[in-house]
Amino acid sequence: MKRILILFLLQISFGVQAQKQFFISFDGIEIAYTDEGKGTAVVLVHGFINDGSSWNATVLKKELLQKGYRVIVPDLRGNGSSGKPQEEKFYTDDAEIKDLQGLTSYLKLKKFTVVGYSRGSIITAKWLTVDKHIKKAVLGGMGIDFTDPDWERRILFANAFAEGAVLTEETKGAVAYAISINADVKALHYLQKHQPVTGPIALGEIKSKVLVVAGDEDLENGNPKALHSAIPKSEFVLLKGNHNDVYKTDSFSKAIISFLK
């Protein structure tokens, strides 16, 4: 028993990736996830050109496990070890939201918290509008701009990942990075093209408690304070840092742990 405890603590300390499990979603696509710890469930939703492993080295995941939370981390479809269908139809009609609802139902979660970051916050915002099982949610690294169905930045990156795209200074780095990690470029194109949109009216009807948290150098996705203003019962925390670093920090973890209490 002592040896098992030591191994568990070592995994938490050094961010060893838990063994991935799988479930079959509503349309037959296999969704990968990890499920660690016991206690109140927290689902961590990753961002664009990423997968669930992006949470492994964060202070937040380590501290959630240390403080007795159950941490569930999916790879969204088209990413990581989850299925990457090559037909566009598999990315339409909020398929990612249906995957997450299917996963939490499969795991028999009655009440749980969701922490999204970057594009994961866009997914989480839409999920909040259709699922009463979400007790609390965190929208990290995101401003108000995703509420616009014609958001230029979304369209810019959707086009950048299309076959034969002419890249711009703003997009060529992202595409090069995706290729360097063997991400599925076609899936990324469809994910951006059919990214969920949650308008201000829908945000205003959210009943769950929400924390909006962002870095003070992170305005590429619009004003995070405006997102906070659009959501009733929401709290707002502004931290020092930029989009790519804030979610890994001690201050990010502290803000979320405090919100969860």
TrEMBL record:
Record bears the keyword Signal: yes
InterPro entries (UniProt xref): AB_hydrolase_1, AB_hydrolase_fold
Gene Ontology MF terms in the entry: hydrolase activity
Annotated ranges, domain AB hydrolase-1: 41-180
Keywords assigned by UniProt, alphabetized: Hydrolase, Signal
Signal peptide stretch: 1-18
Name recorded for this polypeptide: Alpha/beta hydrolase
